[in-house]
Amino acid sequence: MFIRDLFSIKSPVISFEIFPPKKEYPIEVVYDTIEGLEELNPDFISVTYGAGGSSKDRTIEIASKIKNEYKIEALAHLTCYTSTRAETESILKELKINNVNNILALRGDPPAHGFEYKKDYEYAKDLIKHIKEFGDFSIGAACYPEGHIECDSLDKDIENLKQKVSCGVDFLITQLFFDNEKFYNYRDKLIKKGIDIPIMAGIMPVLNKNQIKKMVYLSGSSLPKKFIRIIDKYEYQPEALKEAGIIYAAEQIIDLLSWGVEGIHLYTMNKPDVANRIIGGISKIRCAVTEEKECII
């Protein structure tokens, strides 16, 4: 199934994100993660691409496994900053052969660790155009409730998003955020700009202090006072901080579901036990807000 069609038959759509294991680890370790997530009945699972496409072979293999063996819809990430058009077409062919019909099209981070910018694409919109020309895929793209960290202003970032969407994007997944009000304000701004495709709210549970520092550095996401108080209170009590992070993420999701969000995308960090505590812990709420002929959660 194309993910674009999911939104017309079910609301909200619930999905998980996983990443391939590093090359020094056997790929089988991620299958335990998928099996742990499978019981939560996600509508799809996305698989990241790795810095500079470093895990692209494993991305295809894992996405294929999710789709063809676990019978769960798969969303393969694809970045373009370090790829040529020929390399991209080779990947698209492999995805089609493996019955993976959904792509999250991203520019990717600037090259590092031996990868170089190959100049065939400058922005994600260039990749989206290429995918649309190549074949029939359902295409997702990233959006940023507080603006992309490299963009001068949120308004300018929304103008860039509008161009990206017009190239053929079917749905959006937000970068992580910790303040739901920023998401709601962002959603209103997008509607005023004529961007009315489905948007999934990206939620990442915070499990330790170093993770928070890294996320804020990479994303530029702001931390609300309520969240800062939690960090300050439990920063030297890792188990308490982990528990508070899980509860905070669950409360964010409950609020988003009550507001009527079209989808929740949980960044699982390959920790199915955490996903289970968050999504499994709100199963009654999920069932209550799900609009479909029969709730099978």
UniProtKB/TrEMBL annotation:
EC number(s) per entry: 1.5.1.54
GO terms, molecular function: FAD binding; methylenetetrahydrofolate reductase (NADH) activity
SUPFAM superfamilies named in the record: FAD-linked oxidoreductase (SSF51730)
Catalytic activity reported: (6S)-5-methyl-5,6,7,8-tetrahydrofolate + NAD(+) = (6R)-5,10-methylene-5,6,7,8-tetrahydrofolate + NADH + H(+)
CC annotations in GO: cytosol
InterPro entries: FAD-linked_oxidoreductase-like, Mehydrof_redctse-like, MTHF_reductase_bac
Pathway: Amino-acid biosynthesis; L-methionine biosynthesis via de novo pathway; One-carbon metabolism; tetrahydrofolate interconversion
Biological process according to GO: methionine biosynthetic process; tetrahydrofolate interconversion
Alphabetic keyword roster: Amino-acid biosynthesis, FAD, Flavoprotein, Methionine biosynthesis, NAD, Oxidoreductase
Keyword check for Amino-acid biosynthesis: yes
Entries under CDD domains matching the protein: MTHFR
Cofactor needs: FAD
NCBIfam families according to UniProt: fadh2
Family that this chain belongs to: Belongs to the methylenetetrahydrofolate reductase family.
Protein name stated in the entry: Methylenetetrahydrofolate reductase
